[in-house]
Amino acid sequence: MAATLAGSILKTHHMSFSLLLPSPANPSSMALCSTFLPPISTHFRTPQALLFHRPISSSSTFTPISSQVSNPTAKDEFPAHVGFLGLGIMGSPMAQNLIKAGCNVTVWNRTKSKCDHLISLGAKYKPSPEEVASSCDVTFAMLADPESAVDVACGKNGAANGMGPGKGYVDVSTVDGPTSKLICKRIRATGAMFLEAPVSGSKKPAEDGQLIFLTAGDVSLYEKAAPFLDIMGKSRFYLGEVGNGAAMKLVVNMIMGSMMASFSEGILLSEKVGLDPNVLVEVVSQGAISSPMFSTKGPSMVQSTYPTAFPLKHQQKDLRLAMGLAESVSQPIPIAAAANELYKVAKSHNLGDQDFSAVIEALRSKMKESKD
């Protein structure tokens, strides 16, 4: 399995290093491997840097694999039937990219009208997750929260009822580790394979096929799903056992939510002392703390407009889940905890469906209250 995956990645993505994965039959191979072999050929591209981290489980260590996509796979290399469950802000453009790449896609959504656009592009429709999974080789799921993810996978007429040997379920939703492991257990009980693959990226990256997949679970399904991940994203990381992908995504979104809260404070402080907040956005965008998030969100925040790319209620949910993750390992995260309270205030002002940059309005409301 190790050699197969390494060979597959080298062949598909022109990696210039030989990568070793652990073998279930050889526990000693779980030791962290940081020795790279010489480049195989000078025509291979150097890959994105490999990242190493300690998995959640203390019983073993793992070498995550980073693979950066250079060229999408050709249409005739997609014999598998693909299912897609959940067609919201993220799921709809992801499924659309699969269809446009020539994949055979079957879709489902609680609100059927959200499937209509994709059906017009050539997608098939099934009335339940079970029927989608039953008719497809690999089924992707992009749901809003842990409760929805569990219900769609394990509930009545859920995808697990249509799974079986040879099939795979790839959950790209953002959930906590225990939820991901629960879904994994139910899927694997059918003889099917499971891969968690939460994404880093919002609406525009989803539309442009520039998402980052943080995967963990069955290696064979990772290999099988790789061409589809490469259509929907610009890079993918294999992080080992189920739960690691969920943890990585929560850490990323914890950082993002805290950054946005601090950025909001900066914009309002600049206004308060008589500076032009638009100039602040330019200064920040050209300095050491520059971020696409700041340069993209900043101008609209100054104008108090918040077109939704990542709903505020989802950012608050991810901060809440990150706090649970930190609590499970007794890790203090005071900055993220304070940010979470700010997002909760924003939700109480009915801003949950607006973009998460609307968190600045929670601070504005506090300023008005202090004046009163």
Structure in a nutshell:
The protein has 372 residues and is of the alpha/beta class.
Would you kindly provide a written description of the structure presented here, covering whatever features stand out?
The structure is a single chain. This protein is of the alpha/beta class and 372 residues long. The protein is 45% helix and 12% strand. The protein is built from 14 helices and ten strands. Strands 1, 2, 3, 4, 5, 6, 7, 8, 9 and 10 form a ten-stranded mixed beta sheet that branches. Helix 9 packs across helix 12 (312-328). Mean pLDDT is 85; it is low at 1-61 and 69-76. GO terms for molecular function: glyoxylate reductase (NADPH) activity; NAD binding; NADP binding. One of its GO terms (cellular component) is chloroplast.
Features:
NAD, N-(1-d-carboxylethyl)-l-norvaline Dehydrogenase, domain 2, 14 helices, Rossmann fold, 10 strands, 372 residues, elongated, 12% strand, Glyoxylate/succinic semialdehyde reductase 2, chloroplastic, alpha/beta, 10-stranded mixed β-sheet, HIBADH-like_NADP-bd
DSSP summary: helix tally: 14
Name the structural class: alpha/beta
Q: How much strand content do the residues show?
A: 5-15%
Radius of gyration, rounded?
Answer: 21 Å
Write the layout of secondary structure elements.
Elements lengths: L1 H12 L51 E4 L12 E5 L5 H10 L3 E5 L7 H5 L3 E2 L3 H7 L2 E4 L4 H9 L13 E4 L5 H12 L4 E4 L2 E2 L2 H6 L2 E7 L1 H14 E6 L5 H29 L4 H10 L5 H11 L9 H17 L5 H15 L11 H12 L1
Helix pairs in contact: 5-6, 9-11, 9-12, 9-13, 10-11, 12-13, 13-14
